[in-house]
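the two lines:
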Amino acid sequence: MAIIIDEKNRLIVQGITGNQGRFHTTQMLAYGTQVVGGVSPGKGGMEVDGIPVYDTVFAAVEAQNANASVLFIPAPFAKDAAFEAISAGIKVLVIVTEHIPVHDEMEIVDYAKRNGTTVVGPNTFGIVSSGKCKIGIPPNQFFIEGPIGVVARSGTLTYEIVGNLTANRMGQSTVVGLGGDRVVGLSFVDVLEKFERDPQTKAVVLVGEIGGNAEEMASLFIKDMTKPVVAYIAGKSAPPGKRMGHAGAIIERGKGTFNAKVEALQVAGAKIAALPFEVPGLLREVMG
Amino acid sequence: MVTSSEEAAQVAAEIGGAVVVKSQILASKRGKGGGIKFASVPEEAREAAVSILAMTVQGHKVGKLLVEEKIQIDKELYLAITVDGSAKKPVIIASSQGGVNIEDVPDEHIVKSYVDITVGVYPYLGREIARRIGLTGKPAADYAKLLPLLYKCFKGKDAELVEINPLVISRDNLIAVDSKFTVDDDALYRQRDVPYVEDRTSIEKQAHDLGLAFVELGGNIAVMANGAGMSMGSLDTLVHYGGSPANFLDAGGGTGTEGTAKALELLLQTNPRVIFINIFGGITRCDDVANALIQVKKTREISVPVIIRLVGTNEEEGVKILNDHGIQAYKVMQDAAAKTVEIANGG
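prediction for all of em together
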């Protein structure tokens, strides 16, 4: 099983001829993802790493029956590219691009919702159903198949935690990066619901951070979950009023504090890791 | 807008009646801080200006004043449009109780209305919200005209927040007495006519110009990590071991050798006792980071110890580059963090 993506996904890469697009196409192929095409306007007919390049998403979908896409497109052009993918019938759209204007993000998420497209990101590392399919940019070697579902707002911190899991021989069902921006396609609750129903997933790791109320909303759902949840919240030492990189990671007017999040999650029954490397030990405790 | 007490008196004389003298700063709660004063004659306006210009209000030095007619306030309202991250939509927040901090207004006096962005905001929504906050007659009709205009400004200018507080009813007229307007940093490339007002420290501004997220924290361990979450995790881990970070620095994803080298140069400006670099490469390649460190070491003396943890994409290449230059890289974050704190605390 696993959630959102699996070995059957046929992926296209929008922006495949750019530096990042090219590099990560190679990495995704190496992981075993079925990359079936790339899109780069004006460069149709080329090949990248043996993968055919098309001028439009429609052409790539027609020729390759693609159902997923990943965007390596600069922020000013990301909305156009995302709209193109959604209107061409792409079902899973992963937007790696950071610094997309928030008004564009609201439009992308809105259009996707009306067309039944799942948007992962923007400003995400992507999504990995370990051993089956990777869409995005995480380093391949740390993602091995297993029973742990991981959902996170932040990329590198997720690698840190997944790296720790893998070092402790705890594989992952699916690892989902929601994205670091204020408006993203998936919420913690959307993903937790899927993990709760997924037979492969036996326990869930939630990686949150200060700011916003996403973790508080998640705790309302965790309260009724049958599967155990271990959470790590980044930003314990962050001062209020300072935006810590991510658009959402700021303690504003006393809201979104570390303590409020930890308390809400604990009340809901989640175990809290004080530091990233404590996660595997806590999982072992809750999984018995 | 004036910058001296003489000008303030002159403007007050031109208005010819009671005026209000307001400090123009990038913060709210000016009134509570003494940054707003009333004057009935020009001489009083001059005195008010002298005293406000000498003030620091809510941590901001006052450089500019607005002198305007004192209006009769029959009622103060609150109206704002902002982005709701959990709803993924714009939200209109309206209240019949304005002039105060909206957080202090009880929920039952706040009307929230989410905007369907494919439809936008039309006068009917203004009429409905006006009804729900108890407006009638001319103010209600004006409110219905105002709301679509405010939304047009919010969307057209890529705002994260437009806020009118208070929105005053004065002799049946609606008057925006004070407002706040925040534009999305990520949209500035297409909002070139929006004046940029700097509220960063000098080093934070330098970092911003380099495309890096940087926050000064005042400790003695300079920190560089890739990714906002990892950067926060690094700070939390250092603090856990008893360390005191000098900064938050997200070197970003896929920054490359050049950008990473500039980030390192920036860290050296904070005069730290030790530099902690924590990289888990995804889109960032470990060899780029290693090359950057070597490059900076070559071009200038780094007099403080550097502790580097380097794993992820192109890890082997990166570690080899460091080893070739006699630098050892850590593999485990907590080991590197513990060592860093030991050095910083005089070990």
